[in-house]
Amino acid sequence: DGGITQSPKYLFRKEGQNVTLSCEQNLNHDAMYWYRQDPGQGLRLIYYSQIVNDFQKGDIAEGYSVSREKKESFPLTVTSAQKNPTAFYLCASSTEQDPWYEQYFGPGTRLTVT
Amino acid sequence: KQEVTQIPAALSVPEGENLVLNCSFTDSAIYNLQWFRQDPGKGLTSLLLIQSSQREQTSGRLNASLDKSSGRSTLYIAASQPGDSATYLCAVTADSWGKLQFGAGTQVVVTP
Q: To the nearest whole percent, how much of chain B has pLDDT over 90?
């Protein structure tokens, strides 16, 4: 089955610790994205990547870092510099093929920092 | 900067009634518009994608229209069922990188 997997589903961390969220896709998509969702709000873009070894900051990149060493993987690190890290994190991927840039989402990781 | 608005924020209807969800965006220069469904604590499921050159898309009981010039899209769900209860999000792709700009969503409850 093709799709996007995110792990873990729930993550708990203490303040001051870095944490890495996993995102893997087997859809052969070139583009991958990380979004953050807070209660009652829409999704906001953190980082995105169009090709391997290249990525761009989104609207709320401060306190986050990413890497794109393989086409199928796009891990997100939430650093201790992120002021309000508790949120629901969603990974997505898309292709330039028709239908152009339709995005597919993973199941999400809920991060709680105390 | 592109802004996407969804009104109302919440909606409750009796089973069998048709649902009408609204989405507006400030910049008409979009590549496409997607409607998503999100169940509590879950990821997003893509419902319909409308390319900028299209006026509407249909899938089963769902129909979405797009009026780029007025910056509006409407999602119609016919003969609603309790299983349609979820949050519905619209998002526009406004640049060639494929980045989505989301609305805050409409939370729908269909009562039996």
A: 86
Contacts A–B by Cβ distance under 8 A: 70
Contact A54, A101 (CB under 8 A): no
Q: Is A27 an interface residue toward B (CB < 8 Å)?
A: no
Residue contact A43–B89, C-beta within 8 A: yes
Q: Do B34 and A110 touch (CB under 8 A)?
A: no
Chain segment A43-60, per-residue pLDDT in tens = 999 999 989 999 999 999
Q: Say whether A82 sits in a helix, a strand or coil.
A: coil
Listed in sequence order, the residues at least 6 apart from A8 whose beta carbon sits closer than 8 Å to its beta carbon are A22, A109
Distances (CA, A) of B59 to A3, A87, B78: 21, 32, 11
Q: How many CB atoms lie within 10 A of CB B49?
A: 20
Contacts of residue A41 in chain B, CB cutoff 8 Å? 104
For A34, A83, A107, A110, the CA distances from A13, given in Å and listed in that order, are 19, 14, 20, 11
Do the Cβ atoms of A108 and B43 come within 8 Å?
yes
Specify the pLDDT at position A100.
65
